[in-house]
Amino acid sequence: xxxxxxxxxxxxxxxxxxxxxxxxxxxxxxxxxxxxxxxxxxxxxxxxxxxxxxxxxxxxxxxxxxxxxxxxxxxxxxxxxxxxxxxxxxxxxxxxxxxxxxxxxxxxxxxxxxxxxxxxxxxxxxxxxxxxxxxxxxxxxxxxxxxxxxxxxxxxxxxxxxxxxxxxxxxxxxxxxxxxxxxxxxxxxxxxxxxxxxxxxxxxxxxxxxxxxxxxxxxxxxxxxxxxxxxxxxxxxxxxxxxxxxxxxxxxxxxxxxxxxxxxxxxxxxxxxxxxxxxxxxxxxxxxxxxxxxxxxxxxxxxxxxxxxxxxxxxxxxxxxxxxxxxxxxxxxxxxxxxxxxxxxxxxxxxxxxxxxxxxxxxxxxxxxxxxxxxxxxxxxxxxxxxxxxxxxxxxxxxxxxxxxxxxxxxxxxxxxxxxxxxxxxxxxxxxxxxxxxxxxxxxxxxxxxxxxxxxxxxxxxxxxxxxxxxxxxxxxxxxxx
Length: 482
Prior knowledge:
Blueprint: E1 4-6, H1 16-22, E2 31-33, H2 41-47, H3 52-61, H4 71-81, E3 93-95, E4 102-106, H5 116-134, E5 138-143, H6 148-156, E6 162-169, H7 175-182, E7 189-195, H8 201-213, H9 215-221, E8 223-224, H10 231-248, E9 256-261, H11 266-277, E10 281-288, H12 293-300, E11 302-304, H13 323-331, H14 336-349, E12 351-353, H15 356-363, E13 366-370, H16 373-387, H17 393-404, E14 414-418, H18 426-433, H19 445-450, E15 458-461, H20 465-480
Parallel strand pairs: 4-14, 5-6, 5-8, 6-7, 7-15, 9-10, 9-14, 10-13
Antiparallel strand pairs: 1-2, 3-4, 11-12
Helix pairs in contact: 3-4, 3-10, 4-5, 5-6, 5-10, 6-7, 10-11, 11-13, 16-17, 16-18
């Protein structure tokens, strides 16, 4: 049986179900499989024509022991998860006309029109499946930079075994993203708008870590998470790397590149592991915005926390890319002791500079770029002008990074990730196109409908957040379980 362990070495190995329901490992580390499954060239050949759901079944089956979940149960959860996606392909691929061998993977055709739907559609339904089987209830808690929250809320809404507490930094996400959470009327959805978060969602992650460390509280209200701390998110996101690959290659074995807008490294971590599993990715381009936390890691060998910058690509305005530690674990021969030492050093000094060999090991096969705000907006305008195709600010960061390395990537196809629908960022799109009259491509019916709906939300100041959450979450737990 494939088991899961903490990347910082604490606790005993657990099975897949336990890893999913716990979120964090018992020592506060991140769950990782004891071994990464390998995908052979023969499997790639067999998988090349599968639908998204069929491919997801094959990839996920490598990580889920049949004693935990039968083939029929996995298929049922997958079919339920992706039933509400608006495009029959789940993730369509668009070829850009203005750039040779450059494709856009449209990851925004789920119910909340962002790529977080792709991972959370499955993960929330998986968590609910395990809870129903155990006849238990769980309190999910997530922090969001704008897209994780709406997706968590949508897929949790109305599920009798789940409460979803969704924390977001007030005034640091768009109104459209906020309303995707606050306009849901379901009694089990609890959006929490938090004021005075100078470091955005990183401030909220700190509070969540404290709640997890409060064992009596965690055990009382059955705390869990579907942020990308949860292995299920990373595992599920490996699938769209395989899916995109099969849709642009001429034959399996061909190498391509992937350009990914990233802040927390969750999506890139998934792609990195897919490559380690055997997917023929030549270069992964880590596309950062002005916050540049990942660009420093891959260009300087330095993990550091610097001043927070608000950008048009707000979903990747992140200072601490915690999923990098999960990927690094597999680059140092799964040496949890090294990960723990580096984490302690970062917590003590606020920075870690990796030795030359470690840097070489983890940076091989990566390129990185820091896209400036105006550069991002200019690219949105350019592509819309050239081919009437509208990118969101995060997809634009991805294409910006690809443009910089176009000579290096010559001769190989490149997939750029578009992670949200442009309608979620009307101010940025208006600034890019220099108009207040946004085109149809910058609008979406679901966003327009929410403008007419009532909102419900908890409001709290960051300095009181921990105690306020404990009080509110315990009161809710007592109410629904009386």
